Amino acid sequence: MIHTQIEWDDLCAVVRLGSFIPTDGVAEFHAIIELSSVFENTEKQYHLLAEAAQRLTQLPELKGATLVWKRFFVSDAINHAPYLIANTGESVSVVQQPPLNGAKASVWLYLAKDVQLSNDADGSVIMKRPHYSHLFHTQLHERSTDKTESTSHSPLTLHPSSIEHQTGEIFNRYSRSLSRHGCTLERNCIRTWIFVQDVDVQYAGMVAARREYFEREGLTPQTHYIASTGIEGRYIHPDVLALMDAYAVAGINPAQIRYLKAFTHLNPTYEYGVTFERGTSVDYGDRRHIFISGTASINNRGEIVHPLDIEKQTARTFENVQALLAEAEADLDDAAHLIVYLRDTADYAVVNRYLEQHYPRIPRVLALAPVCRPGWLVEVECMAIKMIENKQFAAF
């Protein structure tokens, strides 16, 4: 993976770019754009992000690349909604997780060459290659239940539904969409992100609903779960308690997928009642994609390591991430991006210094997003891409 940092002073933009450019095959790019000036108003900041994204696509190595996915990390989803609606066909994710550099928004982009995009009727985006279709679902949510009819004299009243109901409906909708592509949650889903409003209160309900749904779909400790991040996040509608993004691959077979455990450092998630994989690697004929779930400062007994010490928790978290990557014969040199979540804004300086010292060029964003267990001060997720050759499988 080639890591590059670009600064465009006229746009007040800092771009960190991860490039996977094989000699033969599809080139892939992950970029995170942050703004270095926080004094512009909301409209101007979104304009600067859009200009930086456009300029990025004009770089020589990205000529001809297709923008497939973008996620906005925003400070105020409700008020930013007017700037987040329009898109040009790519998959768009929006989550209220304020960037900790003080800007109103940062954006993560995924681009690839030699791919074709199409949009399904349900809002999903399909990235097509000769042997695989990559399915991106974003903004899956359930609004509050309608309890009264809207008339000219009696406006519609919305009554918040429970986190359990909303989570169940999200997975029902997602499974129906997958089935239209000949896919199932168990066989084809590689990665999910579940954002929970007021995670300290609502997380347990989401976990219970997800566990129940997985059991119905045949996902158990004896089979497998799905790489995931479950964390604080809000949507543009305040009544949405759970919001999900997901990634699946049509055309893949089970022999291509491996679930990462790192039992020397981490315990199985089901031991403390949750249902996700620590990490998942997917082999293609020419590369390996590695998805590391949200990972915190934990040991292989499920205990928090270094309570209340952000510096030591950060180091242990990255040690755990490295252990998971090592199981897939990779390391952070192969990382395409890092997403770092912090519970406390006061910890930003310490964690940012750690990243500058150890991983300065890897694309990253630091966002305010409490983790599911209050004692975890920091959580990290990442994706990595490693070049391999495996003639048993078709190329990416």
Description of the molecule:
The radius of gyration is 20 Å and the shape is globular. Among the domains are: 1-114, 60s Ribosomal Protein L30, Chain: A; 115-144 and 160-252, 60s Ribosomal Protein L30, Chain: A, CATH 3.30.1330. The strands form four sheets. It has a six-stranded mixed sheet. It has a six-stranded mixed sheet with strand order 7-8-9-14-12-13. It has a six-stranded mixed sheet with strand order 15-16-17-20-18-19, covered by helices on one side. It has 396 residues and is α+β, with helices and mostly antiparallel strands. It has seven helices and 20 strands. The two termini are 16 Å apart. Residues 147-156 have low confidence and may be disordered. The relative contact order is 0.14. It has helices spanning 42-56, 77-80, 163-179, 185-188, 199-217, 310-327, 348-358; strands at 2-8, 13-20, 28-35, 66-74, 91-96, 105-112, 116-119, 125-128, 133-141, 145-148, 157-159, 189-196, 227-232, 242-250, 257-260, 279-283, 287-295, 335-342, 364-368, 378-387.
Topology (SSEs and partners):
Elements: E1 2-8, E2 13-20, E3 28-35, H1 42-56, E4 66-74, H2 77-80, E5 91-96, E6 105-112, E7 116-119, E8 125-128, E9 133-141, E10 145-148, E11 157-159, H3 163-179, H4 185-188, E12 189-196, H5 199-217, E13 227-232, E14 242-250, E15 257-260, E16 279-283, E17 287-295, H6 310-327, E18 335-342, H7 348-358, E19 364-368, E20 378-387
Parallel strand pairs: 4-5, 12-13, 18-19
Antiparallel strand pairs: 1-2, 2-3, 3-6, 4-6, 7-8, 8-9, 9-14, 10-11, 12-14, 15-16, 16-17, 17-20, 18-20
Helix pairs in contact: 3-5
